[in-house]
Amino acid sequence: MTPGEVRRLYFIIQTFLSYGLDELIPRMRITLPLRLWRRTLFWMPNRHKDRLLGERLRLALQELGPVWIKFGQMLSTRRDLFPPQIADQLAMLQDKVAPFDGVLAKQQIEKAMGDIPVETWFDDFDINPLASASIAQVHTARLKENGKEVVIKVIRPDILPVIKADMKLIHRLARWVPRLLPDGRRLRPMEVVREYEKTLIDELDLLREAANAIQLRRNFENSPMLYVPEVYSDYCSQNMLVMERIYGIPISDVAQLEQHGTNMKLLAERGVQVFFTQVFRDSFFHADMHPGNIFVSYEHPEDPQYIGIDCGIVGSLNKEDKRYLAENFIAFFNRDYRKVAELHVDSGWVPPDTNVEEFEFAIRTVCEPIFEKPLADISFGHVLLNLFNTARRFNMEVQPQLVLLQKTLLYVEGVGRQLYPQLDLWKTAKPFLETWIKDQVGIPSLIKACKEKAPFWIEKMPELPELIYNSLRQHKQLQHSVDKIAVELQVNHVRQGQSRYLFGMGATLILSGTLLLINRPDWEMMPAWLIAGGLVIWLIGWRKTR
User: Fold this and answer.
1) Selected catalytic residue, list 288, 310, 321, 424
2) Closest CA to 406 of 94, 78, 64
């Protein structure tokens, strides 16, 4: 490690210990070396004994910066895994991170606008931030040109060096995972870390976020399920984003939603539908759907509509991954474990020499006890965890392209369970996936593909005779080339055989001449002629090999 990385690692350990987070280490025999290491090498005391554990965890992650805050945001959605006193504190990382100076934010806005005063473009600019998160913070204003209320998002100053320093350290630690863990290579830690780093760096480019928001808004235009605020792209730059200000109830405020008369069951189901629509219909999904980025419209509480913001992280899947993923989900729903095992092999997620029967049995062993519970009590997160543990036996590799999808699925499940604990995620998702699969392989899919390709075919139709002629000519030339190569190979084979025969004869003559020269020196010229003949035959054989 470089001195800078060592200092950063020491700072991370110091921060965790100064907040007393070593309390999170379970007291088990397997953790004994870690606890002894903490007592002997890192004797720093807990400097925040007056605070609860959840608050200390939040403050530590906040102090360490955006990489750790993002991790805390992900943990905050898993209320089924953490007690309320920890989950509630982690939820504050979604939009209540300590802000930076509003005057500095104003200066950055003016710099992004070409060193022009904010008052030139905006009225009622509020120097106090409306919300503050790990990467950026938001200020409110009103556009001068049309009087519309907007929010202005500004990147935190000097944040890139912090992210790069942490990611460089994480990269270095990831290289040690295959050496420290028996199945570390299967986890593909370097690919996963690279994917996570890419998403973080992409979040720093607000022009990318503006484009993502415009795309997502177009995908759900006039949809009763999801509304995406309008982006004013003329005012946007790499460090600044201007978009429509929205008013809604935070998705995490369950009490206010219930007081407003919101149909909580429909709201939870629509969250699942929005996720699967983005993944399978559009192949373009919001991959940062933590509660701080989701609101519910005040209008029509009986027919609730989500409002989604912060499109800095989006994901997509290729056609093959979507198909395999949908079929895997349906096979799980139907308890068709043989199909699940075959799909994993076909997709390349496990090695091709995997014993399908053994893999099927292992999956059944894991899943059958889970399915004994009511479907509403089954957690996707627990299923994924159990399958992950089972996959170690079959060398299943982590798929980096699915990491964002898995994270988003956990977000959606966490939010859905919080809104409506009786949510049957499986029942809600299965009809959607079955319909999507049917559309992909049925007659309507064939007709749709023909309609999409028809303009291209019509354009190429006049060129068809020429293309056929060229193809036949190329085939003839290729056949001629193949025949020529075959003849050359045959000739070379014959020449190689001849050269080996000549080498053998030459070696025999040279050996015979040498023996005669030693044993019968009185034969005078005979041994010399034999040796000379052998050398000549060797030379001829050598020329045959050229």
Assistant:
1) 288
2) 78
